[in-house]
Amino acid sequence: MKESFLQGMTTPIKSQATTDLIDVLSPYVTFEDVQANTQLHLSVDGVNLCYILLSGLVKVGRSTDDFVISSITTPNILGISNRVPHESGLYIETVSEARIAFLPTLRALEIIAQNNAWELLAGHMTAIASNLYKKSVLMSAPTTYDVMKFQLMALMQEPEDLRNTTSTAKYIIERTRLSRSTVMKMLSQLKQGGYIDIEDGVLKAVHRLPDKY
Length: 213
Fold this sequence. Notes:
Elements: H1 3-9, H2 16-25, E1 32-34, E2 39-41, E3 43-44, E4 47-55, E5 58-62, E6 67-72, E7 76-78, E8 90-94, E9 98-104, H3 105-114, H4 118-139, H5 144-157, H6 160-163, H7 168-175, H8 180-192, E10 196-199, E11 202-206
Antiparallel strand pairs: 1-9, 2-8, 3-4, 4-7, 4-9, 5-6, 5-8, 10-11
Helix pairs in contact: 1-5, 2-4, 5-7, 7-8
Pfam family, one: HTH_46
Organism: Scandinavium goeteborgense
InterPro entries: cNMP-bd_dom_sf (IPR018490), HTH_46 (IPR041687), RmlC-like_jellyroll (IPR014710)
């Protein structure tokens, strides 16, 4: 994969509709500051929940295997579609302190109906679908090295606070099916080749990566 392609595919799509939809929902909820490393489940006791994320670093994971599905930019809304299976095990985890509110998904949809905000919901869901498509394309990359390149570029797109406190190897392993030995070997060789800068396990810079490993 060309680096320009990777750059575009690892840049999250943001929508003004998401911000406007948050403005519609906010008067009906109470925001709280949630501490880092807190897990919030998208389905509790058979009830799907909608989370409104105003600020902070957040990721979405799967409890069945602790797989990290994606980092989430804020502000954002998760769980609004009411199509998450109760048994999915999906959760939100705060990486830093985050300002979050939640309400039952059905209640959120009622508020959207009352405010005739369906167009905003459609715009928000389009952005989510586009980001999921980007991730699926890159996760189905033809080679292990292509998957590694994607994760390195994605990590460089993360906020500096996250990058400076995250092990590069751990970040990649959590988000892929690659073995630790494979990840460590590739990182070592890319560092030796001068393609990446890593200090104490933390990714500092990505230079022009070779097209092939």
